[in-house]
Design goal:
Elements (H helix, E strand, L loop, with lengths): L2 H7 L3 H5 L6 H25 L4 H26 L7 H14 L4 H14 L16 H5 L3 H10 L2 H14 L11 H25 L1 H25 L16 H8 L2 E2 L3 H6 L6 H6 L8 H7 L8 E2 L1 H4 L7 E3 L4 E3 L1 H13 L8
Parallel strand pairs: 1-2
Antiparallel strand pairs: 3-4
Helix pairs in contact: 3-4, 4-5, 4-11, 5-10, 6-10, 9-11, 10-11
């Protein structure tokens, strides 16, 4: 690659270098203000069952916010951005993985691939939302189309799918993982069994399920929604491998999700997703400062709670127009293809 072209692809490195430095005090404080309230809320959740299950569910919503925040700590540890020490990241990440039902070492490896393939049409399939192009969908079997529509249905996408992922799918090591990572999946499972058994003996199995199940359901739904809208929005970036650019995939393929203050806090600033994909070495508590102090990063797609709802209607990537479309527009494309002469082919 020529020097000028290389410089154009890495212009951002110097800008983000200042923020890509973990601060021990802030990291420890985030552990305290995330784990301690979550444990305290468990005591309240147990007590609330004697009052009303509606109160339990209300408290579960709040506790789920802290669970998402704990997952962000795991997420930062997986990128090596939470502590300078690799061992410290692994220890805290593993503990956060037990709390969030996530095998840390396996998730770290799979998520790393997501970062180097995000927005690349030729390298889809690991750590991302299943996304087909219009052409791929039209050429699919009827069974595959039904499966695709099912997995992109909001109920499946944000409730059934995430719950299955955290409760069942992640209990099994991927054959593609290294032996060490597979071992840690089993170790995480053993720890989860030990915690579930201990709590069941202490408060009762029914009580444990009545609390843990809504916690996982709410937090996984919220977490999946965040991930979804940060990569599935109008104007998102997708390119074939030969035309793909890391910086463009970060700044054009990831949104800035402008959330209300409380939701931004619970989600660990992950709304600044464009910067996170640009440099995963930036700790979550430095993302906002990096965004605000560098206007170069301001020209990105900004979503609000209201505008992000439009993403629900986007289903397929249309390579002809270079954008995500919904099933309604797909029907128009199919009608256009059907009206074409038999010997003609789309450009």
């Amino acid at each position: 690659m020529a020097t000028a072209e290389r410089t154009s692809q890495t212009w951002w490195r110097q800008l983000v270098a200042t923020y890509a430095k973990p601060q021990l005090g802030r990291s420890i404080w985030q552990i305290i203000n995330s784990f301690v309230p979550y444990v305290g809320l468990w005591f309240l959740l147990v007590w609330s069952l004697e009052v009303s299950y509606w109160l339990t569910l209300l408290l579960a919503v709040i506790a789920s916010g802290f669970l998402v925040r704990i997952f962000i700590i795991l997420h930062d540890c997986s990128h090596g951005s939470f502590f300078r020490s690799r061992r410290a990241n692994a220890i805290i990440g593993f503990l956060a993985g037990i709390v969030t039902f996530t095998p840390y070492h396996q998730w770290r490896a799979q998520h790393a691939r997501h970062h180097v393939t995000s927005g690349d049409l030729d390298r889809r399939g690991t750590g991302d939302i299943w996304t087909l192009t219009v052409q791929e969908y039209l050429e699919s079997t009827r069974l595959k189309r039904i499966a695709y529509r099912l997995t992109r249905n909001p109920v499946f996408l944000f409730v059934i799918g995430p719950l299955y992922m955290f409760l069942i799918h992640q209990r099994f090591p991927s054959p593609a993982m290294k032996k060490r990572d597979r071992m840690f999946v089993h170790l995480t499972n053993l720890c989860l069994v030990a915690v579930a058994t201990s709590l069941s003996l202490l408060i009762g199995f029914k009580t444990y399920v009545l609390i843990q199940l809504p916690l996982l359901t709410i937090s996984s739904a919220f977490g999946l929604w965040l991930f979804y809208v940060q990569h599935q929005f109008d104007g998102v970036y997708w390119k074939r491998k030969d035309d793909w650019s890391y910086a463009d995939a970060a700044l054009k393929g990831s949104s800035y999700y402008k959330l209300p203050g409380m939701l931004q806090w619970f989600s660990g600033n992950i709304g600044f997703h464009h910067l996170h994909h640009l440099s995963a070495s930036i700790p979550n508590y430095n993302l906002q400062r990096c965004h605000e102090e560098n206007p170069e990063f301001g020209n990105v797609t900004t979503l609000t709670l209201r505008s992000s709802l439009k993403s629900l209607s986007l289903r397929l990537w249309d390579e002809e127009s270079g954008r995500l479309i919904g099933y309604r527009e797909l029907r128009r494309i199919k009608r256009g293809l059907a009206a074409m002469p038999a010997d003609a082919s789309p450009s």
